[in-house]
Task: structure prediction
Amino acid sequence: MATLKIQNLVKRYGTFTAVDNLDLDVAEGEFVVLLGPSGCGKTTTLKMISGFIEAESGKILIGSKDITRLPPYRRNLGVVFQNYALFPHMSVYENVAFPLRRRRSNKSEIDTQVVEALRLVQLDHLASRLPKELSGGQQQRVAIARALSFKPEVLLLDEPLSNLDAKLRLEVREQIRELQRKLGITTVMVTHDQEEAMSVADRLVVMKSGVVQQIGSSRDVYQRPSNQFVASFIGSANFLEGSIRDGFFWATDDVAFPGGHLPKSTRRAVLRPEAIVLSPVGDSGPTRPTATVEEVVYLGSHSEIALRITPNLRLIVRQQNDMSRDSSEEPCRPGQTVNYEIGKAAIQPISD
Amino acid sequence: MYSERLDRYSNIVQSVAFAAMVIVGFGIILLPLLLIIWLSFFQNAVLALPPSAYTLSWYTQLADQSVFVNGFVNSFVVALLATAIGLAVSIPASFGIVRGNFPGRDLMMHFLTAPLTVPAIVIGAGLYVAFIFVEIATDLPLVGNRSGLIAGHVLLTIPWCVRLITANLSGFDITIEHAAQSLGASPVKSVLLVTIPGIWPGLVAAALFGFVVSFSNLEVSLFLVSPGQTTLQIAILQYLEWKIDPLIAAVSVVQTAMVAIALLITNRFVPLTRVV
Result:
């Protein structure tokens, strides 16, 4: 187990900059996920770590060892590929034994480690099968066992769940997380799926156009996004523009939002849809402002409601649907006037 | 109602026409073969229909005909070597064409498969003239030498090998090779341990087709054989110039049977319908 340090990593293709000056420190045993839309440079970054794309400049260190210029087969990293990349002509056992044989381990050592690795992913009973005789989820678990059998210093996962169907994806995701915790192996994963990323990561690295937008825990990134891109890529968001005066954030059409916690210089802010609470008019005193419901979209566990505050300000509200009550009727209907309330610290500043 | 009946009618016409074409096609391919097999059992040395009696004696005579036995051995050795050299050239070339990233890749592919588009007789004549020029200039014995013959046959095996290997190689997922490297295998080792087994069906098919094309070739050999070093095909041709008797049919049957057996054996290990 080791730390992974990336310093000023750059990769350009002609005039296109795929990865621009990336810095990242991954602590021992940490699970970091690179997240972003396609073309954001996350896969290029992972391939520079695994050695299949050559870094133009910058450094990659495992522990204190500089691996930037080492060929992939000397890096001692476990890599799991999106399409499993199992060796089709070898049994599950031989697939997992492959890295051990390359390291010239002796027979009994190989046997112990293969069985141990297959037990980790609960596939020791299928050791003699060929990859094509396994389901997609089982194949990906074999690929994980193969990447772990030689006890690499860092585990790299390249969109490991994208080829699986939705139900299996959840299952394998849980297993990856559990395994990573159990072994305490330093792990970097790449994905474009924000829910997948948030569910497994100790820290997220949100990227766009080769540039890191924000690094932080799932909670950090969701609750305090650094800019509009991060706020809209992770979850949905209302964006507000305005300025601070008298402890309020004055947005479009002079609508005031609680802003005592915001820095004086705030010009742009984000408001999560679930931070807005609706109630029937006149329910709880005259202090709450009113707005008109424009649209209601029923989405099962919750509904998304478009709320017209003023002619130029519309907010999206997410309202949990209460399943404990019999509610065949919508809690609110288009055209209805409602009270809305926004928590004291619900608004978060973002950079321009 | 009317259109339904018309549909059914045209369906029947379609399937009948299809069956007829298949039968005619197979007939055209198989009829000469069946005729030759039949002929090889005729007792009459001069062809007569119907034959007066049937015999196996042409087959027993075959072993005593040294032209055919030597021709067979010579053809076999030439085909074997031409295939081996063809593979040795085609495997690295295919990796270059499929994996490489350099200008002129398509050109190289066309160049290596060009012998397929040139009539074999032209290749033979061209090589013969070229060999004479080279021999005059360098004193290397090429004309009428087995190495010249093999060189000519290598030209025949390369297009088939390159076509089949590049097709298999481009269908092979390169991330599997990357996986091998990430697990500690050097690039050369990952090709040997993972890629070659992965494209094995293509390699077997390439070797087989190369061998058959070389073994059954007449036109190129005609120009390049030396006296006393004829191939089986030339021996057959020369024999036919003097007489037509069932012996020639027996030679053909033996030859066809051998190729068929080779194909069947290969098919057991590598389903040929999948690779070709």
About this structure: Chain A has a mean pLDDT of 90. The CA atoms of residues 94 and 251 of chain A lie 63 Å apart. Chain A is about 25% helix and 35% strand. The interface with chain B takes residues 50-52, 71-73, 75-79, 81-83, 85-89, 98-99, 102-103, 143, 146-147, 150 of chain A (CB under 8 Å).
